[in-house]
Amino acid sequence: IEGMAQVKAKVRIPLCTNMCVVRFEDFAPAMRLNAVDVIHGDVYKWGGIAATKALAAHCETFGLGMNLHSGGELGIATAAHLAVVSSTPVLSRAIDSMYYLHADDIIEPLHLENGRLRVPSGPGLGVSVDEDRLRHYAGVNERDGDLTG
After folding, report:
1. What is the pTM for the complete model shown?
2. Where are the alpha helices (DSSP H) in 70-126?
3. Which CATH architecture has domain 2-144?
4. If pLDDT is split at 50, 70 and 90, which confidence band does 118 have?
5. What is the mean pLDDT of residues 71-97?
């Protein structure tokens, strides 16, 4: 956090992080040192949808921007990110979605229109899961570790 504060004091561009503000306990030191402008949240790293929405509330309270990290998740995780983004006004910046695994864990692919992923309209997260593919990826993860490397 101290290093981010030193950089922020010397540059005019907004600084975003998903490396030094990674827990709610990191907010106070980051705010005290004026270290960041944007928090790069993550549904699975911050503890789920409710925790990520709580993170967004913290960002809004402290006047920080927020966007979502997306480092190669499956389609179901992308759908979870879209659910958070579409229901959280403070998330006004682009989602960092790479869609690495081409989402073959969901039955119907997510739709990209004009550079934007459309929020799926089905119940829950809006997608139907291919449970065989999900079991496959769970096995790969158990054997090889984090799929996103």
Report:
1. 0.83
2. 75-86
3. Alpha-Beta Barrel (3.20)
4. confident
5. 81
